[in-house]
Amino acid sequence: MEIDFLEKDKKQPPREPSWKGFVLLLLLTITVLFAFGGVLVMSRLAKKDGGTILTRLSRLLRAGDRPIVGEQEDRINILLFGVGGEGHDGGFLTDSIILASFKPSTGNAALLSLPRDLAIPFPDGTWRKINSVDAYAESADPGNGGETARTSIEKLLHITIPYYVRIDFQGFIQLLDDIGGVTVTVENRLEDPWYPITGKEDAYPIENRYEHLLFEKGVHTMDGQTALKYVRSRRGLGIEGSDFSRVKRQQNVILAAKERIFSWSTLISPVRLSNIVRDLATHIATNIEWNDGLRMMQLMKDINREHIRRIALSDAPESLLTARIANGAYILEPRDGTFTAVRELTQHMLDDESAKLPAPKKKIRVALLNGTTTTGLAKTIGQLLAQQDFIITAVGNAPQKPILQTIIYDMTDKKEFLAYDRLRLLLEAIPPDSTASLPLPAFETPPDFIIILGENTKLP
Fold it and tell me: CA 78, CA 110: separation in Å to the nearest integer?
């Protein structure tokens, strides 16, 4: 298939961490803010035409009693996605895409994260990464990105998705600052030496591109910028480097924001409420009308985290996607060659059993040896592979340099062929030449794969 990507430069440093799951949980806050915004709008209208605020407000509340699309079918679908926004390279390239589904009769909700590197068909017959749908539409027809993304993903998944919400990073930062920050309990020490600094993506030496984050265990009061770093960190050392831990951090911050918005210090402050509505109007694009927002608030106000099921599509072993390199770019595509399994999962994501993806049987252990003259390359690649749920057991130098082509040694006797294919495609690696094999060092922890990085190694 033809791949046509919108990224300007495929030889980019490590991608900024994604905030998958973050926008979706923010919906609980956004729907409440629609109500607050309605109060302020009615107040302004009352001043113009002489009507009373209570009269206008009562009409608005009655409008919120009307059913919204999907309510009669007992399933309401909303597409939520986040973009970098103004000041970020590729500001309309989607950083997070999540389908939120809610079942009013039970109060259950499900969140399906669609990876930004998933390749999908476009109307013009080409295949592009799903994160470029919004940017592609905005470049062709400014202001139509959100609607195009909604209809494209609706067609891809074969379900009705009537609503979308798009928020940028600055909107999240300002929202938290407007409510006076959030108080969050850091459950585990988070140390991330590789948090990318916006605007320094091409800085040299490479170390200047990153900030060293450190959050000690305990209670922290965070402003918007600090909270954004906390929820977006992907390269934390130890347990906090996992997807599960990141989702839990995001949830804790959003719940803290929700509690702060409902606090009396916010509700009785016209200045805070006005600032919140103003900032959201600037940084959020949505097709949700006021009355629909009110109805969503009524239906979803009692949802708690125990009623939210999280599903993340990935290329992990036994998941529905697989990774490969196309035209020098990393992409994900359905493992079975079609979107049938993905669509079936989407159809049943609110069911108790059908939405549960099988967990990987084991973590794959990888030893990395640097066969190039680039200092620290093995450590950097190790950080990237750790994001893909590999366990890096050793990092060191190859027995000889330079090595032109990355070499992968399979120590599992082909028992982990899915992991072998992932590593081979990600690193453009080749099996060792039996006529010119290199001496391998002994490892304290036996790895499943030994990889000697060659001069062809590229950072995704």
Answer: 11
Structure tokens at 261: 């918005």
**pLDDT > 60? residue 62:** no
Asked whether 135 and 92 are in contact (CB, 8 A), the reply is: yes
What's the maximum distance between 2 C-alpha atoms anywhere in the chain?
Answer: 91
- Give, as one character, the DSSP assignment of residue 3: B
Question: What's the CATH number of domain 365-453, 3.20.20.330, 3.30.70.2390, 3.40.50.970, 2.40.50.100?
Answer: 3.30.70.2390
Using CA atoms, how far apart are residues 337 and 359, in angstroms rounded to an integer? Answer: 21
To which H or E segment does residue 147 belong?
helix 145-157
Mean pLDDT of the chain: 75
The rounded distance, in Å, linking the Cα atoms of 83 and 6 is 15
Strand (E) or helix (H) holding 410? strand 407-410
Residues 6 or more apart from 175 whose CB is under 8 A from it?
Answer: 29, 224, 257, 276, 279, 280
Domain boundaries, the chain: 1-313, 365-453
Cα distance between the two ends of the chain: 21
Q: Taking the CA of residue 92 as centre, how many other CA atoms within 13 Å lie in the half-sphere pointing to its CB? A: 19
Phi, psi for 301 (deg, rounded to 5): -65, -25
Percent helix, strand, coil in the chain (nearest 5)?
Answer: 35, 25, 40
19 contact partners, CB below 8 Å, separation of at least 6: 82, 95, 96, 228, 231, 232, 250
Which pLDDT score is estimated for 406?
92
pLDDT at 60 over 70: no
b/e per residue 63-90 (b: at least 16 CB within 10 A): ebeeebebbeeebbbbbbbbbbbeebee
pTM: 0.61
CA distances from 8 to 12, 83, 425 (A): 9, 17, 22
* 190-196 and 321-326 strand pairing: unpaired
| Superfamily in which the 1-313 domain is placed by CATH | LCP protein (3.40.630.190)
Instruction: Return d(Cα 230, Cα 393) in angstroms, integer.
Output: 26
Side by side, which strands form the sheet with 76-83? 284-286, 163-168, 76-83, 94-103, 108-114, 308-312
Residue 77's pLDDT band, with cuts at 50, 70 and 90, is very high
pLDDT of 36 over the 50 cut: no
Q: Does 293 have pLDDT greater than 60?
A: yes
The alpha carbon of 227 is separated from its chain's Cα centroid by a whole number of angstroms, namely 15
Paired tokens of 121: 């068909």
The pLDDT tens digits of the residues spanning 234-246 come to 788 877 876 557 6
